[in-house]
Amino acid sequence: MNLCRFADNRLGLIEGDHVKDVTVALDCLPAARYPLPGHDPMIAHLPEVCAAIAKIAPNANALPLADSALLSPIANPGKIIAAPVNYKKHLDEARSDPELHHQNQVAEIQRVGLFLKANSSLVGPSEGIEVRLPDRRTDHEIELAAIIGKRADRVTRETAIEHIAAYCIGLDITTRGPEERSLRKSSDGYTVLGPWLVMAEDLPDPGHLDFELKVNGATRQKANTRDLIIDIADLIVFASMFYTLMPGDVLLTGTPEGVGPIKAGDTIDAEIAGIGAMQVKVR
Questions:
Q1: Which of 124, 217, 228, 279 could bond to 71 as cystine, CB 3.0-4.6 Å?
Q2: In terms of DSSP bridges, do strands 80-82 and 250-252 run parallel, antiparallel, or are they unpaired?
């Protein structure tokens, strides 16, 4: 089951080249009052939502996918967690290119740890990327994004993967400069998630996925998740040592070599095997 958010916050079920409007399935979610929950309610109740979708999908209105404006498939993550330099060749290129490291020491992920991105940076493919500081270099980074499905607090490697609900494509857009990563990567629109959620049970081997990013039709990044320095399970172990992961939290697992600049007018095409493809405009 592949689920998306589209148009004016509608919930969609992807079937071939159509999206079925199954928004009414969200009626199974509990009503929320202030203070609002610090997690994504749909992901916290995903089994119930999927069960409701299965019942209504046969008679749901189907719309052409190509005409549907896709939003981020996650609406309310409690936090967006990202893994820096988690591919060896990207670590090498970051250390060798002054435009990437800006005289900062680029340490291994085991030493530098993870970092957080502002939730306000979250957008979907249809919303595109607005370059925030056009006088600074802005780079693309494609990553596999894992969506946490249940509370994870100091979990073991043996149980870590069980805490993932779904996967999607992530773009971690980056302003180059001397500031901390969390600032340079948290501009509005600098976390693009899409095109939809693929349920974890439908992607049984996330550690062996080919993926590719093109800018204006030219390949910039091409790799496989088997090349991760710290794999997905150990990233969850690492993160949950420091803070409790909650349903809807987003884990960006790292980008490979080939990061490069983007500018207004560019078109990014990102694809991950087993998930799908999305196109994002830069303005």
A1: 124
A2: parallel
Q: How far apart are the first and last CA of the chain?
A: 32
Q: Mind listing the pLDDT tens digit for each residue in 138-192?
A: 999 999 999 999 999 999 999 999 999 999 999 999 999 999 999 999 999 999 9
Positive or negative torsion for Cα 152, 38, 83, 150: positive
| Domain range 80-281, its CATH number among 3.40.50.300, 3.40.50.11030, 1.20.1300.10, 3.90.850.10 | 3.90.850.10
Dihedral (CA of 193, 196, 202, 208) sign: negative
CA pair distance 81, 17, nearest whole angstrom: 31
The token pair that represents 113 in the structure block: 């740890």
Asked if residue 249 has pLDDT above 90, the reply is yes
Q: What torsion do the CA atoms of 273, 262, 73, 213 make, to the nearest 10 degrees?
A: 0
The Cα 189–Cα 119 span in angstroms is 10
